[in-house]
Each structure stands twice: as structure tokens, then as C-alpha cells.
């Protein structure tokens, strides 16, 4: 159960307000949430695309890991953060352990006070119950419709009518394009700097370091859309040149460092030896200096942020 540090007061902390906006699918957009979060004073907003029932949220995990003491994580509604009470309380405990705070704009939540922590737990339980009731109502509605001989969904789509399918496709494309354009100024400059010298795998790792949960396939699809719409140069889609072996090692070392920035050079070297990776000179024993050289190259190439 989340605990409140004994030295907390009810006064609003003076740290950063960091917004977290999540939607469930690629076809949805975060603009509405972003507007509310910016109105609340959030200068930084982290976006996430993933199901509310899943705890696999790289952007949220990175945000919680890097948030500073006195900062406040802000969401529009509790269900944007979590739909499970246990998950919700786990996130709050992590924030509390770092001296950070949590606020939901649509709920009476303020974790700077014991009362706010109590309200959080109560409302989390209510949100979970409401989700269960909604699911039950949906199942009951589908069952009742089937009993009357009706099938759920849009009849035109179900019957594969060309005009309805065309409308659905156009709506999906418009929604996808709107979402891509809403965030392009944050990730497209990075792609312009790294492509085509770096692979889509490499660039997706770079973007994940900055809080974007892109797979290489989704990233390439988004850039292809931008190119087709005349918003990006087609050279971005050119095939990457063959990579020398040391480039693969550079990417591997950068990936190990990104997954756990607290690892020492010696610890990364030990991991490489356990993976039976050979050094750039072909040896089997890794020195910390070799790891540092590869990390420095990764920073110069843009795969890692310079300290």
C-alpha cells in the first residue's frame, strides 16, 4: 500500500509538471489530452500508445525511472495511467519513493496529503469496478442482440459494402495522419539527422531513449506516410548501407547502456563476455576502455544522448 513520507506538507511542490497522455491504438490521437495537460501547466508531455489493460508501457516506465524529487506526474484521468488498482498503487509508490507526486485533473487526487492518498485508492477501486461493469454491460448487450437475431457492429462494414468500407478506410487514414503530424516535430528531426546512415532498429532505440515507443516497422510506416504526403524527403526511405562489424558492436553496447544506464563499464564488459561477443580486435576479453570507446562512438553518431 502506498505510503506518504513523513516530511510531506500540503503545499504544492515547486518541481516540474510532467504530463502523461496515453491512447489505446495507433488510430487514436492524444491531442485532447495534451491540450488539457498544457492548460494545467505541463511543459513536458510524454505520449504512450498501448492498451490500458497492459502494464508494458516503456514510456511510462522511463518517466517514472527518471522523474526528479519535487516533480509531479499529471494525467487527465486515472484510467490514462492504469486500470488496475495494484498497478496504479505500484506507480504511486515508485513516485513516492523518489519524492515525486501524482495528480489527476479529472479526479480529486493530490498525493501531497494523506487525504489525497486515501482518495487515490478509493477512486482507483471505483475505476476498476466501472471498467468491469462496462465490460459486463457490453457482453450483455451483445448477447441480447444475438438473441433477437441482430449482429453487433456496423451492418455496412459487416456486409462488406464498398461504400462503407471506403468511408471506414478514409476515416482510419485521416485519424492516422492526424496523429503522425501531431508529434512529427518531436521525432522527424532525429530521423532526418540519422537516416539513411542508421537502420530503423537503431533509430527506434534512440527514440525510445526520448520516451517514444516506436517499433522499427511502425516508424518506417510513419516516415513513408510523411514522404507520400510531401512532408519529408524520400531519401529517408533509402536502404541503409552495409554496416561494418564494429557498428554492430556499437549498437549492442548502446542498447545495453540504454536498458540500464547505471551499469559500469566493467559490468557492460562482463555482459559482452557472457554473450561471447568478440572485441573489435577479435579478442575474447573485454576491457572497460573498449566499452567506453564504443559508447563514445554511439554518442557521436547520435545513438546515445551526450552527457
From TrEMBL:
DNA-binding as UniProt keyword: yes
Active site: 24 (o-(5'-phospho-dna)-serine intermediate)
Pfam family, one: Resolvase
Residue ranges of domain Resolvase/invertase-type recombinase catalytic in the record: 16-149
Keywords linked to the UniProt accession: DNA integration, DNA recombination, DNA-binding, Plasmid
Keyword DNA-binding set for record: yes
Name of the protein in its database record: DNA-invertase hin
Organism encoding this protein: Nitratireductor thuwali
